[in-house]
Amino acid sequence: MSRRSGVLEFAVLGLLREAPMHGYELRKRLNSSLGVFRAFSYGSLYPCLKTLVAQGWLAEEQGGGGADDPRTPLTNRRAKIVYRLTAEGKERFEELLGQTGPDAWEDEHFGVRFAFFGQTSRDVRMRVLEGRRSRLEERLAKMRGSMARTREKLDAYTLELQRHGMESVEREVRWLNELIESEREGRDRGERSDPEGTQKRHGADPSDGITT
């Protein structure tokens, strides 16, 4: 399974853990709640759903009519398929939720992982945040080195674009530092941390820097 497919699998299982949904509703949630999926189409989602059903992680059920789907004519009110997470699917999501390898730190996966931090244990959250910070610090060092070597050869606009990219990475590193400190303080007090509140206070977007 490709990294991109793995991100979609994780997101679908996570959203269906909240409630069963039909495909159209699920795609809306992917677009609205997890902005990294705005570029995904039905052609990407439905093969993923079929694969998860074949794996036994999702079950298909007959739901209500399709009148709320703008693609469905008003004269066609056939029942839609609703996808429900199975017990095996819940175990699979819990397994994915506990993974903290490099994929969890990368641009394409981190924003999705962060969206489910409310269901993630504190230790896993810390490892993901620290891994993401380490990856960005490495990227920042390379960007600075590249700029130092090439700045005399660049025109003003290209140089400004590179500065903008560096500032975006620096901003996310500062945001991660604040989140990590919040997690540590919460652990020291034996309290549940509030990553959502921290995000709102500092105006941070976990999808910053994420490419699709």
Automatic annotation (TrEMBL):
Superkingdom in the source lineage: Bacteria
SUPFAM superfamilies recorded: Winged helix' DNA-binding domain
The keyword Coiled coil appears for this protein: yes
Ranges annotated as biased composition (Basic and acidic residues): 183-205
Segments forming a coiled coil: 126-153
InterPro entries registered for this protein in UniProt: Metal_resp_DNA-bind_regulator (IPR052509), Tscrpt_reg_PadR_N (IPR005149), WH-like_DNA-bd_sf (IPR036388), WH_DNA-bd_sf (IPR036390)
Domain Transcription regulator PadR N-terminal, first and last residues per copy: 12-95
Record has Coiled coil as a keyword: yes
Residue ranges of the region described as Disordered: 183-212
Key words of the record: Coiled coil
Name recorded for this polypeptide: PadR family transcriptional regulator
Source organism of this protein record: Streptomyces radicis
